[in-house]
Design goal:
Largest sheet: 2 strands, antiparallel
Protein name: Myb/SANT-like domain-containing protein
Order of helices and strands: HHEEHHEEHHH
């Protein structure tokens, strides 16, 4: 993984996260990314505060990386096999577990030795657009889905149009008897 600490080091990442969060609060995010006005504001404010010029693409790439980190961090809280150490503010697990979870969630093992930085700002940026799966239901899940009224559970009537030459459906047994009768010559 490419190290971008030179570009975003020296406290610049904190400034960028604060500016991103401010733009989200100002409703300059459409969908999962900032809109044009949001990026323009980020570019201008970042230049003013850091005296360094970044491109929209650099900010978009940083946004995507921060979102992936935030999503991975939140995923760790849901996983079994790791424990939260409140003193160190780290998730702890065995090495084999980190390897397994990193295969499943790319980049998640970076949190083996460090905590998520600027979690408050990242929460403002991403929490409402993070896909947790909590709003989905599957028949195999333990929790029950909505009860469907029995009037909606009825099957549709099958309509056979005799004028179009379609045959009515037959059971497998009837079909087999017809085939046997044709082969033997009994009719």
């Amino acid at each position: 993984m490419k190290d971008d600490s030179g570009v975003w080091g020296d406290g610049k990442l904190k400034i960028v996260c604060e500016i991103f969060a401010d733009q989200v609060r100002a409703k300059n995010r459409s969908g999962s990314h900032l809109n044009k006005l949001g990026y323009a504001n980020v570019i201008a404010q970042c230049k003013e505060k850091t005296e360094k010029t970044y491109t929209k693409l650099q900010f978009k790439n940083k946004w995507d990386k921060l979102r992936r980190d935030y999503t991975n961090w939140k995923q760790l809280g849901k996983e079994t096999g790791c424990n939260w150490n409140a003193v160190k503010k780290l998730y702890e697990a065995l090495d084999w577990w980190w390897k397994k979870i990193n295969d499943q969630f790319k980049g998640i093992s970076k949190f083996k030795d460090k905590s998520l930085e600027y979690e408050d700002e990242l929460s403002i940026m991403f929490e409402d657009i993070r896909n947790t799966g909590d709003d989905h239901w599957a028949p195999t899940s333990d929790e029950g889905g909505e009860d469907i009224p029995t009037s909606l559970k009825l099957k549709r009537r099958s309509v056979v149009d005799k004028e179009k030459g379609k045959k009515a459906k037959t059971t497998g047994g009837q079909w087999m008897q017809e085939q046997m009768a044709k082969n033997i010559g009994i009719e």
